[in-house]
Amino acid sequence: MDSSRITLRPYKSTDADDVLSWASDDRITRSTHFSTLTSKEDALNFIDKSSIPWRRSICIDDRSIGMVVARPGSGDDRCRAEIGYVLGVEYWGQGITPVAVKMAIPLILDEFPEIVRLQALSNAEHKASHRVLEKAGFIKDGMFRKYLYFKGEIKGVVLYSFLSTDPIIPS
Ligand SMILES: CC(C)(COP(=O)(O)OP(=O)(O)OC[C@H]1O[C@@H](n2cnc3c(N)ncnc32)[C@H](O)[C@@H]1OP(=O)(O)O)[C@@H](O)C(=O)NCCC(=O)NCCS
């Protein structure tokens, strides 16, 4: 994939059909807490609520094919944000998500100046997600065994982080 075709931008209401086409696929929600969207109304609702948490559309040639999401902490956790990402199945395996995550890093750090740490808790078995974080420059902090319920089963997670002082790897 030519990385100049990849952009990250806010959602627009005209993205609803494209959002529905990737977000209605169970294969992208199976390994995340994201709920599958089932109608155009769901997609418009998702777009309407895209500022809380912070969400940006991963686009190819300006058409929405996925998202990067960040949830800034509050109170004593306001120094960090959790990030997540999903990509339409037909685009998997082309290195698109790591490029989008690298684009998201400066946007999140600029918008939330108190944040010095971005982190992701990734299911310990989800190797593709670990690779996305590694290719985006995140460092593995460690593993938490039997950490949370995921789709009815207790799973371990791997914690990755990127600090505001870490270098962004060029795409
Ligand atoms: C996880 C996910 C974001 C990866 O995005 P991507 O753009 O396909 O990422 P990459 O192309 O960089 O591939 C990452 C790794 O996936 C694996 N992969 C390669 N081709 C693949 C394919 N066709 N299908 C699935 N995984 C593949 C490889 O291990 C690759 O690592 P490598 O580059 O070292 O070989 C995407 O699969 C997805 O949206 N999954 C569902 C949602 C999800 O699990 N989100 C993460 C939890 S927040």
UniProtKB/TrEMBL annotation:
<feature type="domain" description="N-acetyltransferase">
    <location>
        <begin position="6"/>
        <end position="164"/>
    </location>
</feature>
<dbReference type="InterPro" id="IPR000182">
    <property type="entry name" value="GNAT_dom"/>
</dbReference>
<dbReference type="Pfam" id="PF13302">
    <property type="entry name" value="Acetyltransf_3"/>
</dbReference>
<dbReference type="InterPro" id="IPR016181">
    <property type="entry name" value="Acyl_CoA_acyltransferase"/>
</dbReference>
<protein>
    <recommendedName>
        <fullName>N-acetyltransferase domain-containing protein</fullName>
    </recommendedName>
</protein>
